[in-house]
Amino acid sequence: MIRIETLVEKSPRLLIDEQVVNWRRHFHQHPELSFQEEQTSAYIVEVLESFEVFTIETGIAKHGVIATLAAGSGPAIGVRADMDALPIIEQNDFSYTSKNPGVMHSCGHDAHMAILLGVAAILADHYQRGDFTGTVKLIFQPAEEDTDEYGKTGAPYFIEAGVADELDSILALHMCPWLETGAIQLHQGPSMANIDNFHLIIIGKGGHGGYPHESKDPIWMLSFILQGLYGLISRKMNPLEVGTISIGKVTGGETPNVIPDEVQITGTIRSYTGAVRQQLIKEIEQVAKLVHSFDGNYQLEIERGEPALDNDPALIEQIKTTAKRQDPSMKIVEEPYGMGGEDFSHFTKKLPGAMFFLGCAKPGEIQKALHASDFTIDEKALPIGVDILVGTILDLLRSNRP
Fold first, then answer.
1. Which of these is catalytic: 17, 82, 84, 342?
2. Angle at the Cα of 200 (from 197 to 201), degrees rounded to 5?
3. Which residue numbers belong to the known binding site for Mn(2+)?
4. Which residues bind Mn(2+) (predicted)?
5. pLDDT band at residue 364, thresholds of 50, 70 and 90?
6. Please, what is the Cα angle at 181 between 175 and 184, to 5 degrees?
7. Is 327 a catalytic residue?
8. What pLDDT, on the 0 to 100 scale, is given for residue 377?
9. Mean pLDDT for the chain?
10. CA distance 116 to 122
C-alpha cells in the first residue's frame, strides 16, 4: 500500500493518478452485490488507514465506511461514493475483468470508490499541511442498486445513523458514458426521478374459454386498464410536468381454453416533483376502479422508492465554478440527468447536496450504456473527477460556508 508521504513527495500528481487507476481496477476485479461488500469495505479501510490521518467508522448498512478529517471549526462537508456491483455477466476482455462470476461493476461504482480514495489521498496532504479548517467526511456507501429485506437501500441507514445531521452539505459524482472525457453534466433542482413501483391484481371469475359469458374475464378487463394507464400521461397530466408510467410485467392464465380468475400487472412510476408523484398514484387508483364497471375487483399495492435527486443550486454553481477554473475548456452540459433513480437523493432530501455527472466515454469510440455487460470507462476521466471534488471541497471549506 502506498503511504501518503510517498504519494506527496514523489511526483504526487502522477503517483496519485496512477494509483486511482489501480484502485479502480482492483474494485472492478472484485465486485460485490448490495449489502455483500465485505471485501470491498476491508480494502477501502486498508487504504484509508495507510494515510494515518483519518478517523474511520465502519458497519453502517453492514459494510459502510466513513473516513473523517476534523481540522478545527468550520463547515462540515460530506462526499459520498457507492460501493455495490450488479448481477451481470461481464462481456469485456480486459486483464482486470470481474473475477466474481455473474457480478460486475457496470454502473461505475468502482470508479466512484477509486476517485474518493484519490480525494482522500490529496485531502490527507492538505490536512497535514494545515491548509483548511473544518470537517470532511468521506462516505463509502453500500447498496445503492438494490434493497434489503426491509425495502431499504444503503443511504437511508446513513440517514438513520445521524450522518446527515453532522454535515452542512454533501457532494457526489456519477460516471456519465453519454459524454466524452473532459465534459461534465450539471443541473439545479430535481435532476433524477422519484421512483415508485406498482402491482395491480385484476380479479374476475374464471371459466371455460368456450363459454366466456359465464365468466368475469379479467383479461378483457385488463384491455381497458391498459388503455387507461397509457392514456394518463397524454390526457391527465400537465404536458409541462415531468412524469411517466411504464408496465414491465403482465401475468395471467395457464392454458388457451381457460379464462383465469385473475391477471397481475407490475409497473414503474417516475416523476420529478412530489405533486406529480402523488397525482400519478391517485390516477392509477382511479383507473384500477374501472374494473368495477365490469363486475370485477382489484388489489393495488404501491411500493415507494427513492425520492427525486434535488440538487442544491448554490452547490451546483460552486462545482461549475471550480471545474471551469481548473479547466476553462471543460464542456459543461446543463440538463437533467434523466428518469433513472439514485439513492443519493435520500441525502439531498435531508441537507443541501449536489451530484454531477462525469463524462467518461472514450473519444471516437462507441459509447457504453450504464448497466450493460460491456460497460467500461475512459480511465483518463478519473483524475478529472478527483480534481473537481477536491477543488470544490476546498473552495467550500475556505469560503467558510456550507
1. 84
2. 150
3. 107, 109, 145, 174, 371
4. 107, 109, 145, 174, 371
5. confident
6. 60
7. no
8. 97
9. 95
10. 10
pLDDT category, 203, cuts 50, 70, 90?
Answer: very high
C-alpha closest to that of 96 among 34, 143, 31? 31
Q: Give CA separation, 344 vs 164, 354, 358, 380, 398, in Å.
A: 11, 9, 16, 25, 25
Cell numbers that stand for 335 in this block: 440538463
Catalytic member of 32, 82, 144, 312: 144
Mean pLDDT of 187-191: 97
**For the chain, which domains are there?**
4-191+308-398 (3.40.630.10), 194-304 (3.30.70.360)
Distances (CA, A) of 260 to 121, 199, 265, 297, 306: 62, 18, 14, 14, 35
Q: How many residues does the chain have?
A: 402
Residue 13's pLDDT is 72
pLDDT tens figures, 65-108: 999 999 999 999 999 999 999 999 999 999 999 999 999 999 99
Give binding residues as ranges: 107, 109, 145, 174, 371
**How many angstroms separate the CA atoms of 83 and 34, rounded?**
8
The rounded distance, in Å, linking the Cα atoms of 297 and 289 is 8
